[in-house]
Design brief:
Elements: H1 5-18, E1 22-29, E2 52-55, E3 62-67, E4 85-90, E5 97-103, E6 116-123, E7 134-140, E8 155-162, E9 167-171, E10 175-181, E11 187-195, E12 198-205, E13 211-218, E14 227-233, E15 242-253
Antiparallel strand pairs: 1-15, 2-5, 3-4, 4-15, 5-14, 6-11, 6-15, 7-8, 7-14, 8-9, 9-10, 11-12, 12-13
Length: 261
């Protein structure tokens, strides 16, 4: 059968639309990139803008430090060499908070299907109080970072554990119970956009490498995901440090055979 040019072009478009997307690593950072004493700050790795920290003032019970395995409650989300992670603490008298803001560099935002962000989190016990203590991160449109409370400004997705809750949860347009109970072994979390308003979230046990869940849901708000905010809200417990690490962003591209020459 003879193919007309229109038929051939249509066939190529069909193949391109059904071809799996490849992913390019456009931004990456982890705690082992930092050697500045006991603190993580500045702009290491690549593809991100610098860190901005907002912490409760006064009593000195909220802050951040560059953790190693000398912190006995740091388990499986460290990066090599030197077994480091980004540590936060928020405890002591009164309500204490610490938030670490990080924006993607221009062009590296999550904006379309297959764009993916990876981050690791590990939290110790979180006290049960009123108001509830919590730890986690938000993925946000824009990068409001002028205050502690700005961590929810422009939020499209929040991953968190609340003191007294049974499981970790994901908050988009609705709350998605992950079915994963509290653990201090650490979690690797991969959030991928499936279109401009939907996400898929894969959660992996950092200790075993096993896939714990693969959830889908609707994002809240509108716009691209331009920044992440890591938060620790008065987790209180003496072993209630919250650790983060392995921050990466992947952007999708069509396989080379489908790209215009």
């Amino acid at each position: 059968m003879r193919l007309t040019m229109l038929t051939l072009c249509g066939s190529l478009l069909l193949l391109a639309s059904s071809a799996p997307a490849a992913l390019d690593l456009v931004a990456s950072d982890d705690a082992s990139n930092y050697t500045n004493g006991t603190e993580w700050s500045g702009n290491m790795g690549f593809g991100f803008q610098g860190w901005v920290f907002r912490e409760s003032s006064g009593a000195g019970y909220a802050g951040h430090w560059l953790a190693t395995t000398a912190a006995t409650d740091l388990n499986h989300i460290w990066s090599l060499p030197e077994y480091k992670a980004w540590g936060t603490y928020a405890n002591g008298d009164g309500w204490q908070d610490v938030v670490a803001y990080r924006a993607m560099s221009p062009g590296n935002s999550l904006a379309e299907a297959f764009d993916t962000l990876h981050v690791s989190i590990e939290n110790g016990p979180i006290q049960v109080n009123d108001p509830p203590r919590r730890a986690g991160f938000t993925l946000r449109n824009g990068n409001a970072d002028g205050s502690i409370g700005a961590y929810q400004t422009g939020a499209r997705l929040e991953f968190r554990f609340i003191g007294g809750a049974s499981n970790y949860e994901i908050v988009g347009s609705t709350t998605n119970d992950t079915g994963i109970g509290w653990r201090d072994s650490g979690l690797h979390i991969e959030v991928a956009m499936t279109d401009t308003n939907r996400y898929r979230c894969r959660i992996i046990d950092a200790a075993t490498g096993s896939l714990l869940t693969n959830l889908v849901g609707m994002l809240k708000g509108t716009g691209s995901i331009d920044s992440i905010a890591l938060f620790n809200q008065d987790t209180e417990d003496s072993e209630g440090h919250v650790y983060f690490n392995n921050l990466r962003v992947y952007k999708h591209r069509l396989p080379t055979m489908f790209l215009a020459k």
